[in-house]
Structures are given as C-alpha cells and as structure tokens.
Design goal:
alpha/beta, ThiF/MoeB/HesA, 2 domains, Rossmann fold, two-stranded antiparallel sheet, Ubiquitin-like 1-activating enzyme E1A, UBQ/SUMO-activ_enz_E1-like
Length: about 350
C-alpha cells in the first residue's frame, strides 16, 4: 500500500499578486490521487491559477468540468447570453427550466457543486467584451481560454494576452468538427531525456516558443515532405480557416449546403497560398466541405465532449508543466473520430 502524501501545507506564491497560498489539508486529501499522477508541485500551480473562460457553450462546459475537478484556484466565466433550447443538447449545466435565463445564472451553482474548493466568478454583462474592462480582467488572470469565438475576436484577445504575457487558448466545434489553438508564449515543461539509458529514464526541462494566432495562420507548409503532409492531413485545417473567413463575411456560420461552393473556393485558395505538397493534397475534399457547411452551426454533444475534454486537459498540462502541451493547432474530425496536430510557425 502506498504511503499517504504529507498532510502539512506547502507554501507557494500566487501568480497574480505575490500573496502566498497554501495547499490545505482538505485539498491534499481531495487531490491525493491526481497528485500521485502529476506531483505536488504541479497541483500547487493549478491551485494558484486563475483561469478566464469566455463563452459557456458545449466545449467550455466540458473544459470547465475538467479544470474545476482538477482543483484550479479560481474560475472566471464571461457570457451574456440566455439559455436556448439548442444549449440543452451539449451543455450539461443546463436544464429545461433554465431556457430564457442567463447561462451563467443557471450554471454557476452547478459548476460550484463540482468542487466547492474552487472559487467561481461569473460575469453576465456582455458589454465587458467590448470595453477596457476585459483588458483589466485579463491583466489579473493567469490564463485565458476563448471558446466558440470568431477569428477577429480570437486575434484581438490573443493580442491583449500577448501584451500582458498571459497564455492563451481557444477552442470550438463546428458540427462534426472541432479545433484547439494555443499560444503559450515561451513555455517550459519536462520532457523525456532521449539520451538517458532506457533502464534509467529521466526528464529534462524543455522550452517551446509559441507564436500568436495571427502569425500561426501565415504558416507555409513547403518544408514538409509528401509523407509528413499526409500524416498531418491539413485539409480540415484549411476548411476551418475558410469557415472563419466566411463567418466574418456573413456574420454567421453556414447552416446548409448552399455555401459549400464558397467554402470550397476559400479553402482551396488558402491551401494553394500555403504551398502544401501537391503530391499529398491537391484540393480540400468536397465531401468534407459539404459536411462542414451543413453541420457547422450546430453543436453535437460527443464532439463537444472530446474537444472540450482535450482543451481542459491541455490547459492543465500547461499549468502543471509536466508534459508537452499541444503545439499548436489541433483539429478533430468527428466522421473518423481522429484528430491531428498542425505545428504552425513554431521553431
């Protein structure tokens, strides 16, 4: 039987104001199992983290569940929308009787019930997103996660995070498809030392340098071989980038096949401009475009669960510093149940 972890408090420093925070006996007991997995230092970093999540839909619901259960210090959520009937399918914090109420008013007590040790703050004033107040909030948190945002919003918030050196995540789903992007600035984590003997494994501190979203989207694919390109399979990435362009133009996501031709033209234009190996991919498949065009405006619970679960777990990885996070754009295909990571403009 494994010896229990020490009960005494371990003093660490908050990333916000330098005030020492302790891992209490109650927390050590609650998080005992996971501390055995990723260590007490990683748990302390999570305990001292304040996370800002913007928008509470299906992906955010799953990500929040993972982060709150893991024991982050504080969660701040911004969402000014009301619960709709469509929200009930992928948002397990909502009930039938919540339709018409503010999403956060309906969800707050249910989020808190997951882990009473985590402080939960909700902001239902949508005007915060368009004011200097958002910047003042970002200054005080340790990490920002934007879900189901449009391209211009993501770039703007990523720029604010860069200004104050705050790690940035975004994620969302488009029907059967989804993505996660992260900009972790200069991020340190532990990686296996490949030079160490197999019978004496050890880890070394590694640094990964991440670009902001606006730079990542300018990535050129010409350096990849045919085999490497096929492994990454960037067709879905270009389809999602085309979808972002279409969303900016029409102020909404497509909901039927009538916009498939436009999406196909945009996706193939981005594909050609990125110098992807033509032996591996000459055009974005038409069936992918049609599927995206007809499902993009809908949420499917299984897809939200997978993408949101991965988003929450990757945020915990980044906070813990024990494993390499996503580098740096993940796409998920619900038709195949598989996903790939596209390394965009990273050294």
């Amino acid at each position: 039987m494994t010896d229990p972890l020490p009960k005494e408090s371990a003093e660490v420093t908050s990333g916000n104001d330098g005030v020492p925070l302790n891992l209490t006996e109650e927390e050590a007991t609650r998080y005992d199992r996971q501390m055995r997995l990723w260590g007490i230092e990683a748990q302390q970093r999570m305990r001292n983290a304040t996370i800002l999540v913007i928008r509470l839909k299906g992906v955010a619901t799953e990500a929040i569940k993972n982060m709150v259960l893991a024991g982050i210090g504080k969660l701040i959520v911004i969402d000014g929308e009301n619960v709709s009937e469509e929200d009930l399918g992928a948002g397990f914090f909502f009930r039938d009787e919540d339709v018409g109420l503010k999403r956060l008013d309906a969800a707050k007590s249910r989020i808190e019930s997951l882990n009473p040790l985590v402080a939960v703050e909700t902001i239902t004033d949508a005007s915060v997103m368009k004011s200097e107040q958002l910047e003042s909030i970002i200054k005080l948190v340790d990490l920002v996660c934007v879900t189901d945002g449009n391209k211009n919003e993501l770039i703007a918030i990523n720029d604010i995070c860069r200004k104050y050196e705050k790690p940035f995540y975004s994620g969302g789903t488009y029907g059967l498809y989804g993505y996660i992007f992260c900009d972790l600035l200069s991020h340190e984590y532990l990686a296996p030392d490949r030079s160490a003997p197999k019978d004496q494994p050890k880890s070394v501190k590694t640094t990964a340098v991440y670009p902001p979203l606006i730079s990542a989207l300018q990535h050129q694919w010409s350096a990849l071989t045919k085999r490497q390109t096929k492994e990454v399979n960037p067709a879905l990435y270009f389809a999602i980038i085309a979808l972002w362009h279409s969303q900016a133009t029409h102020k909404s996501l497509p909901d039927d096949i009538s916009q498939a031709d436009e999406l196909e033209q945009l996706a193939n234009s981005y594909l050609a401009g990125a110098y992807v190996n033509k032996q591996a991919l000459t055009a974005v498949p038409r069936d992918l475009i049609e599927s995206l065009a007809t499902t993009a405006s809908h949420e499917f619970s299984p897809v939200c669960a997978i993408v949101g679960g991965m988003l929450g777990q990757d945020i915990l990885k980044a906070l813990g510093g024990r494993e390499p996070p996503i580098a740096n754009f993940f796409v998920f295909d619900g038709n195949t149940g598989g996903g790939t990571v596209c390394r965009l403009n990273m050294p």
